Amino acid sequence: MRGDGRHGMLRRQPQGIVALVSDIRLGNGPTGWDVARHVRRVSPDLPVIYMSGDGAVDWASMGVPNSIMIAKPFVMQQIIVALATLLNSGGPFPRI
Description:
CATH superfamily: Response regulator
Strand order of the largest sheet: 1-2-3
Protein name: Response regulator receiver
Largest sheet: 3 strands, parallel
CATH architecture: 3-Layer(aba) Sandwich
Organism: Mesorhizobium plurifarium
Strand content: 5-15%
Number of helices: 3
CATH topology: Rossmann fold
Radius of gyration: 13 Å
Shape: globular
InterPro entries: CheY-like_superfamily
Helix content: 25-40%
């Protein structure tokens, strides 16, 4: 990731982090796709949940394996179900 310190917590093995939940569009800089790929290099088994209003069509080609895409708008229960699915199963995981 960038060397400006904004993503310093992603440079080493995450301590106490059980999953990554990220929007696809994060403004200037890395995308949610980029963040997930980087996190998976550091922690290959960390569950990844993407959310997007328009990036869902790119999930198959851009998303990391064994991740879940949730299309916006969504309700909080969808995040909870997705997280439970990732934490309790070995994948592959569907789009919710």
